[in-house]
Design brief:
This protein is of the alpha+beta class. The protein has helices spanning 14-22, 27-35, 45-57; strands spanning 9-12, 61-66, 72-77, 80-82, 87-88, 90-94. The longest helix is centred in the middle third of the chain and has 13 residues, at 45-57.
Amino acid sequence: KAVSFHLGRVVATPGALAALEKVGESPIDYIARHARGDWGEALCSEDKQANYDALKYGTRILSAYLLPDDVKLWIITDGVINPATRERYATTLLLPEDY
């Protein structure tokens, strides 16, 4: 399914940046996957469906990826803050323990 949504401001926790640096991965690659609707290999089918519903209803979008060392990386895009523009406040890269 093709998707499109506003990411808002993109931020990351120090833990997420350190985990990405440790395995030599770029945060941009994961942000791009999230933005095109590739919700990740570490997300169950129910959560993936919730993301498609979030595109329709303006709620939170969650992606979960496994880094090469099996550390889980989450990307969360906040719910819509402006219903007229469908604008979202922020997208955050984080580790589950940062939540």
